[in-house]
Amino acid sequence: MIMPSLARRSLYRRLLWTSLSTILAVWLVLFAWFYWEVTRVGSGYLDGDLRGLARSLGTVYSADIKTGERVRIVDQLIGQFGHGYSEKPPLRSELAYRIVDKRQHLLAVSNTWPELELPIRADAPANQGRWRILMVDAVDAPVQVQLAVARSFVQRVQAEILVFFLMPLIAAVPIIMLLLRVGYGRALQPLALLASTITSRDVQSTAPLACPDPEYQELRPVFNSVNELLSRLATFREGEQRFFADAAHELRTPLAAIGAQVHLLARAESEQERAALAALLDASIARSGELVGKLLTLSRLDAESAQVRSEPFDLAALARAALSRHVPHALARNINLAYDGEQALPCRGDASAMDGLLDNLLDNAIRYCPDGASINVEVNAGFASARLAVLDDGPGIAPQWREQVLKRFVRLPDNTVTGSGLGLAIVKRVVELHGGSLLLTDGLNGNGLGVEIRLPRSMMAEEA
Fold this sequence. Notes:
Layout lengths: L3 H4 L3 H29 L5 H18 L4 H17 L11 E7 L4 E4 L16 E3 L2 E7 L5 E8 H37 L1 H11 L20 H48 L3 H32 L8 E4 H11 L1 H6 L3 E6 L4 E4 L1 H18 L5 E8 L3 E8 L30 H11 L3 E6 L6 E8 L8
């Protein structure tokens, strides 16, 4: 069940909020930088312009200008300075000046010049009480200008900088969101087209998906993954269809035989004839049951969800138990069974699947070996793997056929022994699921067939 919080998640909204957050973060960083550059004490733009104002005042008072004209020029300079930072210029009570000559003789002073607790330093502006104070020597005149700016004006400048930056941002946020919404809506259209292309396909089709917008490199991994999945699905379906076709073909013969034998059994006249037909019927039923069992085993092993259970088992004990189960069948044909190898070899894996593997190998060996043959089972612990081998001295398999017989329903052309053609295919699949390797070699003393299986060291219990 999809949780409500997860159902509301959206890549579109994630892109929208990520972009908007990035824009706001950049805007705020620029605002912080501008605010710092303007208002920092000593080297900010405000203090730099205050120095320029002080030098201009020094030039005015060192020049031969009438008093009325000088007052007008001073007021004009102060107004120009104020309008550069605030819509409302500093009041007369917010900016004061004091001008002295080189001998500290007073030349001019405004009525609002404050009483300072500390002497003015010429190196940098400083805050004293409610004033910011600085002192500048005029460049072309032998005068010294002292300026005092009320910190209320500085705070008004700071507030107007804040409004100057934040009001446009507040007004622009809805417009930015609208533009991002439209832009991302158009940008994500290829993704919607991809979804439509996938959902509109025939559910039975496994043909590769055609990319409607191949120029978008972000969509290529999605198309490649979908096409890879479709290719795997096509392979699986092809194998499944071939499996069912082969199974139907293989089951047709024993079922036809059963039907014919039942028909003959119904028409049998003597008890002896009925007994012979009943024995043949039992053999046909047994063969059909064996074939169905192996088909079910192979189908289970082929399932997509087939997983190797990790459980401890003793490979040597499994091999000896499998030999014991096949002793009656071997004795009936005078076949010698032998075990050679470890007394115990702890492993981890699917014990049931390994048991079925041993049964298939021993059943095949006994089925195809002539009377009086020998079959050996060997279990050894190697440096990098555990080795399981079943060797016989029967007719064997020619080297050119050894790869073919590992496929399903493959039988040797000159073979007269009845079999399902699935035993070695089941063995191969079990080995694959355990991550091992399978090799068909010569058997005992260079005769017959040897099936050698190596299981990875990681399956051995000591390494688990």
